[in-house]
Design brief:
With 731 residues, the chain is mainly beta. The protein has three domains: 3-335, Tachylectin-2, Chain A (5 Propeller), CATH 2.115.10; 338-421, Sandwich (Immunoglobulin-like); 432-706, Glycosyl hydrolase domain, family 43 (Tachylectin-2, Chain A, 5 Propeller), CATH 2.115.10. Helix content is 7%, strand content 40%. A five-stranded mixed sheet has the order 20-3-2-1-21. The chain has a five-stranded mixed sheet with strand order 22-23-26-25-24. Strands 4-5-6-7 form a four-stranded antiparallel sheet. β4 and β5 (106-112) form a beta hairpin. The protein is globular and about 85 Å long. The N and C termini lie far apart (89 Å). 48% of the residues are buried.
Length: 731
């Protein structure tokens, strides 16, 4: 080796160890690579590599961001590599990506695993990949028990990652591995020179004090220390850190969980923000289909930043690597589309989950929040490196569509007609369902209490409230009840709340009934926005006598204006009713009655009173069905019997407008007026109808006018995107 080469190698190793800020750019996932940065090639973007899970989801996908917070999937969220071509099972998970010490070679490793075809194992292989352009990759598989006879009893080889060892000038791969039914442990070995296999016998990297299971290791080098993030299993579950001043030994456990959620998590991935001293720790909230980002400057204290992060995809266990403008442009030229560029406006006024693009006509419709000024509005399209969108300044949308041109380097420019509409449905941004509405005399405002939606399998565990003076502009009042924090008897499935305001001894009390773990509880507050305190036990936790099946969910509370008595209704597959005691947190013994109106009844009872008639509303079909529909019956009493008219549809899908799954409603009467509105959820528009069963837990809340015929029957409501005008309350 000549003198020049020796000098260059010495500088690389020296700068890597020191993590020199001005001349070295820290690599994603905490790996310390060295590269002299110039203005031309300084890191300015981020590459997120991930898999999605589910049907055909065990494959490597890419997404890009310019700031580390807002990500857009490349290749329309389709795989960028063929799992069948690179793996032994036809599936890969948990991809980890790394920039090499030379600054221009990239390494990626992944679990060789196909749960769709083979279930959960045994899984004994990992995939090693290498590239010089992030587009074209060579790959090799390593079947650990075949390569090393000492590990013939291994049945799990999970979540490999790579880090550069500057002392040996080699790449170390570390992963979790299990023998038989023993605990998973984190091992390491060194890759060979061409990154096609392992050249050293695997050794245990971390010795957990209790010898318990640990998986999903992620090593970050900072301030002369190696920080090993990992997930514990068995005796507690969550993410912890062990720290050492050596890469391959001496890790000491910091015995505390660092995830900022009570939900199950896995797949820690850490990266340093460009031009910042802050790091992002992200992880997979895998039971909910959610990903959480947290921020830290010391790798010890972490703050959740959920409201700062957006993605147009649902990742599972992945990693992020800072990249240059040139590298990002290369990726967009290969895998970006102008359609996706136009679907990513950054303006906070745009309802991003409701954007509609007609690709055939290149017509883009941007729904915006109430009160958005359209004479000078800038959608602020999020152009990634290698992409331009013009015009770049605010435009006048009051006279119709405005033409925008998107250009991806090396491809033909595409022009779009962009129109902006102020639609009031959905009324709150995001995924919510099962809305309850209240007018509070104490504050003179309306309040919405929905199920927090958007979680796979309805697995949300908290409730929020929203307030409004006019039913159009809504303020997020935050989380009012968190099962993991506030409820001792249930931690899952926070569903379908209802609420009532009571004036007691000159003050107001709010009784909030909610479903959790298929039981019904009650919490109490002095204000409609909380905080709410749980009663400490479920109010309803078993099927009523004579009922053979169904769930204890979907409570509704009602005060009979004629007698002043209070009633609770609930049920799934049946409609039950019982009188509440004066304390509002217990049921009067012997008053439970089954009121199921007909064989089509499913759930979501709501009771209202108007001009001597008691209206019972409920939802038919399954909430995952496009035909989820609200029906009604009437009675002369709050405890039935219920008469179901021949024409009993309250609200149903509107296929012409692309509105589906309309159901689980509540109703609000404007105080002092015979003016009524229906509050309900629907599938997300426009994507819901394309999502299959997942549409049933990606729902949104809407409000439309509710009207009655002269005979008291309900006019069927046509659900709309436009929604209602703002309500002005009488003084």
């Amino acid at each position: 080796m000549n003198t020049l080469k020796c000098t260059r190698l010495f500088l690389i190793v020296f700068l890597t160890i020191l993590g020199h800020a001005s001349g070295v750019v820290a690599q994603s996932a905490g790996n310390q690579q060295a590269k002299k940065a110039t203005k031309a090639d300084a890191y300015s973007a981020y590459l997120f590599t991930y898999f999605t899970g589910g049907k055909k989801g065990e494959a490597i996908r890419f997404a890009l961001s310019t700031d580390g917070y807002h990500y857009r999937a490349l290749n329309n969220n389709l795989p960028v590599l063929s799992s069948a071509a690179i793996s032994t099972t036809g599936g890969v998970r948990d991809p980890h990506i790394l920039r090499g010490a030379d600054g221009k070679t990239f390494y990626m490793v992944a679990t060789d695993m196909n749960t769709e075809k083979y279930g959960w194992g045994p899984d004994t292989a990992m995939v090693l990949m290498q590239s010089t352009d992030l587009i074209n990759w060579t790959s090799h598989t390593v079947i650990v028990p075949q390569v090393f006879k000492e590990f013939e009893g291994v049945n799990r080889v999970w979540a490999p990652q790579t880090i550069y060892d500057p002392k040996l000038n080699k790449y170390m791969i570390y992963w979790s591995m299990r023998f038989g039914n023993g605990p998973d442990k984190i091992y390491y070995a060194y890759a060979n020179k061409d990154f096609s296999g392992l050249e050293t016998l695997p050794k245990q990297l971390f010795f957990k004090p209790d010898n318990g299971a640990c998986i999903d290791g992620d090593i970050v080098y900072k301030d002369g220390k190696y920080h090993l993030f990992f997930k514990t299993e068995g005796s507690g579950a969550g993410i912890k850190i062990a720290v050492s001043d050596k890469l391959t030994e001496g890790y000491v456990l910091i015995d505390k969980y660092i995830q900022q959620t009570k939900s199950p998590v896995e797949g820690a991935g850490t990266f340093k923000l460009n031009n910042s001293n802050a790091y992002i720790l992200m992880y997979d909230r895998y039971t909910e289909g959610k990903y959480q980002f947290t921020r830290t400057t010391d790798l010890e204290h972490f703050t959740a930043i959920d409201n700062e992060v957006t993605m147009n995809f649902h990742p599972r266990h992945g990693t992020v690597m800072p990249i240059t403008t040139q590298e990002a442009a290369r990726l967009t030229a290969k895998w970006a589309s102008t359609d996706d560029v136009m679907l990513s406006p950054r303006s906070g006024q745009v309802k991003k989950i409701n954007i509609v693009l007609d690709s055939a006509t290149h017509t883009l419709t941007l729904p915006v929040l109430p009160g958005t000024g359209l004479k000078a509005f800038n959608p602020a399209f999020n152009a990634l490196p290698g992409i331009t969108v013009t015009p770049t300044i605010a435009q006048n949308f009051t006279k119709g569509a405005v033409k925008y041109t998107a250009t991806i380097k090396g491809k033909k420019p595409e022009t779009y007609n962009v129109q902006v509409q102020e639609n009031h449905n959905p009324v709150i941004e995001g995924y919510y369902a099962d809305p309850e509405i209240l007018y509070a005399e104490k504050t003179g405002k309306f309040y919405l209490y929905p199920t927090s939606d958007g979680f796979d399998g309805w697995s949300g565990n908290y409730f929020k409230a929203f307030s409004s003076a006019n039913l159009v502009n809504w303020k997020d009042e935050g989380v009012i009840l968190d099962l993991s924090r506030d409820v001792s008897w249930a931690k899952r499935n926070a569903w379908a709340p209802c609420i009532i305001e009571k004036k007691i001894k000159g003050g107001y009390k709010y009784f909030y009934y909610f479903a959790a773990a298929q039981k019904i509880g009650v919490a109490v507050a002095n204000d409609p926005a909380g905080p709410f305190v749980d009663s400490g036990k479920p109010l309803v936790d078993s099927l009523p006598a004579g009922v053979k099946g169904g769930q204890q969910i979907d409570a509704d509370v009602f005060t009979d204006p004629q007698t002043g008595k209070n009633y609770l209704y609930w049920g799934n597959g049946y409609m039950a009713c019982a009188e509440l005691n004066d304390d509002m947190i217990s049921l009067k013994t012997g008053t439970t009655k089954i009121l199921t109106p007909d064989r089509h009844y499913n759930e979501g009872t709501y009771v209202a009173y108007r001009k001597g008639i008691y209206y019972f509303m409920w939802s038919q079909n399954d909430t995952r069905s496009p035909d989820y529909t609200v029906h009604y019956g009437t009675s002369n009493s709050p405890v039935g019997p219920i008469t179901v008219p021949a024409n009993n549809v309250v609200i149903a899908k509107n296929t012409k407008e692309g509105i589906y799954g309309t159901g689980h409603n509540s109703v609000i009467q404007i105080p002092g007026r015979d003016e009524w509105y229906i509050v309900y959820h629907r599938f997300n528009y426009p994507k819901g109808i394309t999502m299959g069963d997942a549409a049933g837990y990606n729902r949104e809340v809407c409000i439309d006018k509710l009207e009655f015929n002269n005979d008291g029957s309900i006019k069927e409501v046509a659900p709309t995107h436009k929604g209602i005008k703002g309500v002005v309350l009488s003084k």
